[in-house]
Amino acid sequence: MAEPPGAAGGPGSSETSEPTAGRVVVLDVVGLQPEHVSADRTPELDAALEEVIPSEPAFPALTVPAQTTLATGRSPAEHGDVSSGEYDRERDAAAFWERDRGGRDRIWETAREAGLTTGALFFQHLIGTDADVAVTPSPIEDEDNNMLEMNCWTNPDGLYDDLRAEYGHFPLHNYWGPTANEESSRWILSAASEAVERFDPDLLWVYVPHLDYAGLRHGPGPELEAELPVVDELVGGFLATLRGDDRWDETAVAVVGEYGFHGVDTPVLPNVALREAGLLETESADGGSAGSTEVDLPGSDAFAMVDHQVAHVYADGDAVEEARELLASLDGVDVVLDGGGSGGPDKAAYGVDHPNAGDLVLVAEPSAWFAYYWWTDRAEAPPYAAEMDIHAKPGFDPCELFLGEEGLVSLDPSKVGGSHGRTDPGTYPAFGLGGPAVSGVELGEGTGSEGAVDARAIAPTIAALLGVADAVDAEVPPLVGDETEGSRG
User: Fold this and answer.
1) Which residues share a beta bridge with 23?
2) Predicted TM-score (pTM) of this structure
3) What digits encode the pLDDT tens for the residues 424-461?
4) Helix (H) or strand (E) holding 47
5) Would you say 176 and 159 are in contact if contact means Cβ atoms under 8 Å apart?
6) Where are the domains of the chain?
7) Domain spanning 5-261+423-471: which superfamily?
């Protein structure tokens, strides 16, 4: 696996300069890679972007770590988002997707503090942002996580009511789960067009999830290829909205891909191994059938919080070495990272040396991924295992993309065809830049490997285009500088 960018390069410095663009729109087309952008595959994106280059993501290449790095210019070792989940060591509890904004200052928050109008749509952990326009799903649920009514948290208050009146409820079941498809991207891009018309933001970041579903279900291949013209058409419709307003001549369009996919055929079950070794304990699951179990986190000596091709193992001090030897021997485990005391690879070298990280961090082989299961007998599965319940599961579950045999979602990990988390050059995502405001502007060299731009350079580059480069405290300098020409319209 390529050495992550967090391990190389030094901090860059930048100063406020004359802006190149009056408006920057970032399309976060998750799963998009440079080779996907061409006149025959994606003509709208190809025509919109002057330059498309690979971006080397920070390790781990997972949703929340990748997004926070892209939007802050910092590595996970600095910003602390080491997974899409969190493990609370004080409470011995694992939770996915439950953070709000917290102390994060992403580019739309820092640019707003610098005097710009900003917006972000469907980025993770938006609740609490002070961006001028923001939309993120926040369904109203009962105490058992059953949805009572679809809703979105927004800035300003009441915006979701207006969007619902125009476009209907946000199609949450097309955003994740067995029926996830392009309709979620369609709704989000419609909301983005509405945001441009109503709020005229100087910076707008839009998450477009569509390709992720094909990538996770099938991996790279014909199924993902078939979805490229679909997402391209949706993006093209949004770009037509931008071209039709009076700020088009001062607009820059940036496209980021977050990560690419490995084809996988080997699910790895670290919690089964820990349980069989007596390091992980279980207890009877509340509300489950006879024999149904739940992991007893306080009573366990070690537990693996899994997220695609990366697993964070939280272990009691006297169990770390036993867990390391056990898990390193599993088929599908490529690397075991620690604090540097074993003489092997350490977390610091991978840019993930943060207190939020596990005592051990497992990296899967390219064709493998980690499943959260601690059982092999389905009778022991907890009641939420066959349900679409992303908050109850103490690990990421891509099986939720497949209809189940016994419940809503599948319990067959062999169905999963794609995964991510490693930072291999063949899976580098795209970074593209276009629009009239950057016509003729050349991107400087990034500090990533294989000719790629370091993902940490993207936030400062966007800030530099807007003339607020000093607002982003990034670890590397922007790809454009004072020599770029242009001014705000």
Assistant:
1) 251
2) 0.93
3) 999 999 999 999 999 877 776 655 677 899 999 999 99
4) helix 43-48
5) no
6) 5-261+423-471, 266-419
7) Alkaline Phosphatase, subunit A (3.40.720.10)
